[in-house]
Structures are given as C-alpha cells and as structure tokens.
Amino acid sequence: MKLYVHWPPSGKYVLAVSGGADSMVLLDLKAGAAGERGYQLIVAHFDHGLRPESYDDLLFVKAAAAHYDLEFAHVTARLKGACEAQARRARHAWLESVRQKHQADAVVTAHHQDDLLETSLLNLARGSGRRGLAPMPEGGRILRPLLGLTRAQLRAYAAAHSLTWREDPTNSDLTNSRNLLRHVILPNATDAWQEHYLELLARLGTLNKQIDQAIGPLLAGARSGPSSYSFPRALVRDLTLPEVAELLHAAALKLHPGAELERRSVEEAALFSKTAGPHRRRPLRKDIYVMVDPRRISVYYIGTSDR
C-alpha cells in the first residue's frame, strides 16, 4: 500500500512517537525510508504521567525504537490537573529540547488531515483568530509529513503492514470535545463538506502567510531589546484597530514563540494602545504586556524565552 508522504530533505530528525497507530505508521515509514533518503532518526516519547498504563506505552515505544535500531529518548512528566493546552506546551518544549540536544533539523509529528480538521473546529468554537483557524502551518521546527493523509488511510496502512500500537482508553470518552468531534460530529459530515472546509483552511493558510509577510517590515526595525518591541505612537494611531491587533500579536509571538493569546485580550490591548494615556500598561497575558509611553507603544515579555 502506497501513501502520499511529504518527505523532508535528508537530515537528522526527532520523531515524536506516542505509541498510537498514527505515530507507529510514521515510525515505520520514516525508518523504512531512512537509508534511501539519508535520514538520521531519534525516537522521542513524552510520557504525560496521567494514566497508570502510560509506563507500558513507554516500554512499547522503547521496544519499537530498538526494533528499528534507532536511538530512543524519553521523559516522564507529572502533569496531573493540566489542561490539554498545558500538556501540549510541555510536550512541545521537551521535544524542542531533544532537537537542540541532538542538533536535529526538526521534530516530525504524525499529525494528519483529521487532526487538522478537529483542531481547527475546536479553535473555532473557542473563538480563535486566524492562526488558530488554520493551525499546523508548514515550515519551522515542526514537520508534519502525513498532513495530506486521513486517519482511515493510516489505519489501512497499519493493517496492511501488520503494525501494532497502543490505544489510549481516554480516546473513547465523549465528554472530551475532541473525541466528540472525532467519533460523532465529523463522521456525520459529508465528504464534500470536509473537502470544502479543508480548501478554506488552505486559502486561510495562504492569507496568513501574506499577512505575516506584510507585518514583517514593521517588526524589523522595532526590536528595542531582547525582550521588547517598540512602535511610534503615530504609527499605531494611523493603523486600524484590526491592524494594531495583528501588530501586537505578531510582536508577542516573536518575543515568546508558541504563546497562546486570547483574541479578546489582543483586541482590548489594541484599543488600549490607541486610547490610553501615557505611562500605563495592560497585559496581553500574564507574562506579556503592552506599555503606552508619550511617544512609543511597547510590547515586552517578562518571562524566559529561547530567543
């Protein structure tokens, strides 16, 4: 069975492998292509420490890495009480640390077309902005070579190649919004509807790139320190509110890549930056602030960043 995979160039890659069906297909595909395509692979497993059986998942992935004769890295976290977003941030931070340790080119994940649909719809329900509605953009330090494939195609490949995997029992819990989408809502959506939605996501992804490119020159000369951007008040005054919101959001993401900002918070900060008196500040989130001075509007980060 042949699958369309967006193969990255030769290099060293960290494979994020949970032990589920999708990540085991990713592991089999990448390991099988390693010699031909010049890949050096490190299997990385993040144990959230939330389920009693998660240790068995770790042992399963470790054995799979040994089967393919690949280096294995793992960590066991203690994320009891963490929400999905917090767990995701912790996982991504650790995977990035593994990438840096091994001087790898990127982290490779098993995200596929169904994941893209689910994440976009969940973000839509949360009131996300343009970035959340078109998640999983191409490029950067995270690669998703299976994004053009469906979950059904990956399961068919796993069956055809007699792959084994571990099922997370929480995936059947319909009180979880993602599971409700996966098992109830999307199966009842027509293929035509899903294809149309994916087309809209592709168009929005292109538009996002264009917007980010337009903002780039405004950011280029505005870096005022390792943890701040500063813009002339006259510039902010002349921009529309949506344009100011985009500028503030982009500056915040440059200072703290991966930061999750609520759209309402960004919009309120944009209005604040245009109307507030000098020497006042407002949080975009608990560690990122907007400061209004007589001549400048600044965005500054008070946490720690890898940039």
Structure notes:
This protein is α/β, with parallel strands linked by helices and 307 residues long. The chain folds into 2 domains: 187 residues, HUPs (Rossmann fold); 81 residues, Uridine Diphospho-n-acetylenolpyruvylglucosamine Reductase, domain 3 (2-Layer Sandwich), CATH 3.30.465.60. The protein has 11 helices and 10 strands. The protein has a 5-stranded parallel β-sheet with strand order 3-2-1-4-5, with helices on both faces. Strands 6-7-10-9-8 form a 5-stranded antiparallel β-sheet. It is globular.
Strands side by side in the biggest sheet: 3-2-1-4-5
Please describe the biggest sheet, giving its number of strands, its sense, and whether it closes into a barrel: 5 strands, parallel
Overall structural domain count? 2
What is the CATH architecture assignment of the largest domain? Answer: 3-Layer(aba) Sandwich
Which stretches of 5+ consecutive residues score pLDDT under 50? none
CATH class group of the largest domain = Alpha Beta
Q: Name the shape in a single word.
A: globular
User: Strand portion, in percent?
Assistant: 15-25%
By DSSP (H or I, 4+ residues per run), the number of helices equals 11
- CATH-defined fold name of the largest domain: Rossmann fold
Mean pLDDT value: 92
CA distance, first residue to last residue: 43 Å
The helicity comes to 40-55%
Please state the structural category: alpha/beta
